[in-house]
Amino acid sequence: MEDLLYYKRHVFFCTNERSDGRRCCQQQDARALRDYAKQRIKALGLAGREGVRINTAGCMDRCEEGPVLVIYPEGVWYTYVDQEDIDEILEQHVIGGKPVLRLRLDPDE
Question: CA geometry: angle at 82 spanning 61 and 67, to 5°?
Fold first, then answer.
């Protein structure tokens, strides 16, 4: 099955911005951190087919836990606060295949 995947890992960042004042991922600078992740993956030579894709997602309905991102094909959800958290997720999970437990969100939350 793994050899049928277009991307080895696909990372979706919620960048939702709510206009009604409710908490949203963009209030935590989600777009800038998504851009940072995208730049890091490109700099590491991992972007593209059979590699890693960093994408923007609209609301994933977890803004209260955010900012959030999800990595497929595993379906592992994370929260993060800064570039160091993004680096840890990229290095440990995206490249190394091992989830970052301290940043992982429970799928049932």
Answer: 5
pTM score, whole prediction: 0.90
**Rg of the chain's alpha carbons, rounded to an integer?**
13
Sheet holding 68-72, edge to edge: 52-57, 9-14, 68-72, 76-79
Q: How many domains does the chain have?
A: 1
pLDDT tens digit sequence for 19-78 = 887 888 888 889 999 999 999 999 999 999 999 999 999 888 888 888 999 999 999 999
CATH number at residue 65: 3.40.30.10
Q: Domain range holding 59?
A: 2-95
